[in-house]
Amino acid sequence: MTICAGFKSQYGVVMCADSQETVGIMKFDSPKLVIKPSVGDESDKVRMLFAGAGDGPFIDRLVEEMWKAAQRGQDFSMQGVFDRVEEAVIEWHKKIWDIYKGVGRPEAEILFAIYVPHEVNLYKAIGPIITEIENHAFVGGGIELAEFLADQVRADSDSIEEDVSTSLYILSTTKRYVEGCGGDTQIAALMLDGSIQKMNPWEAEEMAKGIVDISRQIFYLFSASGDLNSKKADIERLARMTASQIKRIHAELRKKISERIEVKPALKESVPRLFVRIEWPPTK
After folding, report:
1. CA geometry: angle at 6 spanning 33 and 117, to 5°?
2. Closest CA to 204 of 40, 63, 14, 43
């Protein structure tokens, strides 16, 4: 069981996943977020992020087949790359599923992002069926809770910082309340200029705690407001205190997030006038 999330904005795609794999009564750390290529080069014509839930070995081989297909051929338009990836997904499922004859066959749910110059798209593959995602998507366990939280907290500001905060909050909450989801949070962003940025797990955990603190402040105010016996002055005082606490936490989080996954000034200036700048790992 695992939970994976993907969020698309005008600057690119933020993708995150937990890292817990459960076999029987045992729990293991198993990275679910894959960056391709693992080491970038200025000659890269395509880059991808993957996050998957399901049968681990099956997903590992499927991701490799998708990545090999993305690099083949001469057409490196988004449509050209996607067509080759889709064909690889269909062929791999057909090849493996034919062996099982429909009994006990391995399953895969994968979120993946494709970068080609000037364009980043987000997709979801459930088995051999792939759909393009315009906003956000989840795969794995706890997706009902994740969808509910996304509807409640994700606004339309199209901010990379907001998508990072939202993804950390959703994964933190899902890991807390859904059986089988847990471990470190992995998070990375594939940007429209081709750069790939990621956080260390301890950094993601640190920021998730701050975001959860904000939610607790808001829910406490909501709970107090629901008491019809509360006086107007008491609610106003509590609202001021809550706003003060949220501003403090928010300022700290925004600074931390912008230091770790950020939209570089040059990229901000280039949207929608885009350019290509490849770097790996991202430099400060």
Report:
1. 85
2. 14
